[in-house]
Amino acid sequence: MRPPSRIFLRRKGLPYIAVDEAKKALFAGAKLKSFDFVVYRPEGKNLLVDVKGRKLSPQNGSLQNWTTREDIDDLRQWQEIFGDGFSAMFLFVYYWPDRPETSPLKDMMLFQERWYGTLGISVSDYREFMKPRSEAWGTVHLPAKEFRRLAKPFEEWL
Fold it and tell me: What pTM was computed for the model?
C-alpha cells in the first residue's frame, strides 16, 4: 500500500523521505519498528507516517482500522526521538474495488487502475480511544464512531 501514498505526496509537491528497512540500519541499535514516511509540511509539525493498507468492502463499507500495540508504542517512541517539531500518525489507505462515487470515503485517488481513499489519525488520539481487538495477536482498534470522529483524509493533514 505504500506506492499510492508516495504518488499522493509527489502530486502534492511535498518533500518527504521514505523510510525503508535498508535505512533502518541507521538506527541499528534501535529495537523499534520503523514507520514509512517523514513528511515535511510547509506549516505546522512535520509528520511521521505509518501506512496501514486495508480493503473496503462494498457490502458493508466497514473501515477496518486495527493495528498492533507494538506499532502504537514504537510510533510514539519515534515521535519522542524526533522531538517537538514532529507528530506521529497512522495513515489508513483503503482499496475500494468499486466505482469511486460509491465509496464511503470522499477523496479517492486512482493508482494503477485501482481506487484508494485515505484516512489519517494521530497516534495520540488513536491511543486514547483504542480498544482491544485480539489479545492473542496483540491488536487493537477504534470503535467505528470514534474513528469516524477523529480520522480525516490525508489531504487535511497536509
Answer: 0.87
